[in-house]
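Many introductory courses stop at the sequence. We go one step further.
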Amino acid sequence: MKISYFETGRYVPSPDLPREWPVRSGACDLDTVSVALRGMEERARFVEALGFDWVSLSEHHYSPRILTPSPAVSAAWLAGRVDTIKIALLGPIVPTSNPIRVAEEFAMLDALAPGRIVAGLLRGTTNEYLSYDLNAAEARARTDEGMELILRAWTEPEPFGWQGRYFQYRTVSIWPRRRLPGLQSYVLGTSAEAGAFAARHRMGLGVSYGSFEAMGRATAYYRQQCAEHGWTPGPDDIIYRANMILGETDDAAEAMLARRDKRAPFPIGGALRDALIEADVSRNVAGVRQPANVGGVLPISFCGGPDRVVEQIRQCRDAMGAGVLDISLTDPGTGDLEAMMDALTLFGRTVLPRVRDI
């Protein structure tokens, strides 16, 4: 089992910060932002020293909850400041992005840190579509076309044109080229389309936050699709992103869970709430029929002392076949950075050595 640390920028908000998405930009404290973003280097080097395999980043907008609206910028900052740990962008939101720009940014990062960049391509959630005024009904089709274009840009040695439904380019010929082989690539999502696309293009699959059973259905569908395309994915081809509460004992972890703030950290504001449409989950092979989680409190997948968490990781591996676990490890009741660093240290000392062979 490989272990990844999910880096969110770790902005520490003031008590009076508005708790509604989008958060008004006037509430942003630039000194706090600078401390949070510069701290990414310290935390990445810290988990690298602990023996973590990856540090992961994602793209989110209009709130400090995840302070990385440009994961490529964050990755470039980290690339020159860590030595061996891989940097996973999980990932750029394809339907709201310029696919050629995404292809170029990954190719640049791969040249800056050869063999240490991981690419995840993501459809995103409903509030991300609102950020850039995307019709949510088009998100799936735009994602598929955008990913096809990114892969073509990475692999086509000659200039080519692209006249698709959503993206049109007279000429595409990216510099620098992506290193082939060398850039690990994943599709992120639990839809049938995500699993089928990943299998068809021999890419990995990333799933997140759902129950072991539900995510196991998504990864089983992916493996079935891989078999139909004549190949078998390995453990490193499946990523599971999840929240974890780790205590010295089970009781200590349960006490931290009891302090969990039941409110959504940044719920959608009234006017925008009316604009949301329910996510199309008819093709969600995980079998979870619900709208996308927008600003809500995400579930805790792992909770306990070291022995219990090791067993939970074993159950996760058995249920979904994930060989990479991407974790956010903190006390959800406090959001205390010091508590998070203590938890990471405890994980590195008591859990990480025991899950390598899982």
